[in-house]
Amino acid sequence: MTEVLVVAGPAAAGEYVADILARAIQTDPETVLGLATGSTPLPIYAALAERVRTEGIDVSSVSGFALDEYVGIDPAHEQSYHHVIDAEVTQTLGLNPERVHVPSGNPDTLESAGAAYEEAIRAAGGVGWQILGIGANGHIGFNEPGSPIDSLTRQVPLTEQTRQDNARFFDSIDDVPRHAITQGVGTILRAGHLFLLAFGEHKADAVARAINGPVSPEIPASAIQQHPNVTVLLDAAAASGL
Ligand code: GLP
């Protein structure tokens, strides 16, 4: 079932999800989180970090699996998702870095990196709670339009729109990588529960097509309709096309 909640804004959405995750971790210290980058999930990490701190929640056995990484970017680069996840999630929440995984964007090992990542998720018992943002073109992770519903972790080309959307994080559009490695749509659908968050008018069209449109590889986020446990959290602007 897809539950759609329209909330006051990013902070309220962050509190809502963090509350569920805090309770999940208290119930199961080995909770496995599916981690998204981008600006959208930041309020979740901030709110969860606050709960961890004020309630003394033990997160030492929590694992995390990031959705994606750019190909050919140095993991130490400020905009690599290795770096972003480390700064915004691992350190903020105080997770054990050895339990936080990001797919490898090393061009030399791309052939095997997808299968290795799938195996690491499986070995951890699968992702329990997957956090998702959505691209303006309906992508989830870096599954661009055309991504098969049953796709697994693999290398993908980035669309011009996504490169332009993400250019703000780089010195120039020429510095934005052209490929990424991403969990597939099928990988994402294996998680126990999905949280998809979107804020702002520029996401309204993608949100409407993801929730009300046909399930189609053209809008990879529409695949969430096939998942039994989904919570979509929107502000009024992102919900304006529903
Ligand atoms: C990137 C990430 C996605 C994210 C999207 C939206 O493309 N790979 O996982 O959902 O950006 O980013 P934002 O939340 O900043 O709008």
From TrEMBL:
SUPFAM superfamilies: NagB/RpiA/CoA transferase-like (SSF100950). InterPro entries: Glc/Gal-6P_isomerase, Glucosamine6P_isomerase, Glucosamine6P_isomerase_CS, NagB/RpiA_transferase-like. The active site is at 68 (proton acceptor), 137 (for ring-opening step), 139 (proton acceptor), 144 (for ring-opening step). It comes from the Bacteria. Signal peptide: none annotated. Its EC number is 3.5.99.6. GO terms for cellular component: cytoplasm. Keywords: Carbohydrate metabolism, Hydrolase. It holds the Pfam family Glucosamine_iso. Pathway: Amino-sugar metabolism; N-acetylneuraminate degradation; D-fructose 6-phosphate from N-acetylneuraminate: step 5/5. It is an enzyme of class 3 (hydrolase). One of its GO terms (molecular function) is identical protein binding. Residues 12-228 form the Glucosamine/galactosamine-6-phosphate isomerase domain. CDD domains: GlcN6P_deaminase. The keyword Hydrolase applies. It catalyses: alpha-D-glucosamine 6-phosphate + H2O = beta-D-fructose 6-phosphate + NH4(+). GO terms for biological process: carbohydrate metabolic process; glucosamine catabolic process; N-acetylglucosamine catabolic process; N-acetylneuraminate catabolic process. PANTHER family: GLUCOSAMINE-6-PHOSPHATE ISOMERASE. Catalyzes the reversible isomerization-deamination of glucosamine 6-phosphate (GlcN6P) to form fructose 6-phosphate (Fru6P) and ammonium ion. HAMAP family: GlcN6P_deamin. Belongs to the glucosamine/galactosamine-6-phosphate isomerase family. NagB subfamily. This is Glucosamine-6-phosphate deaminase. It comes from Mycetocola tolaasinivorans. The gene is nagB.
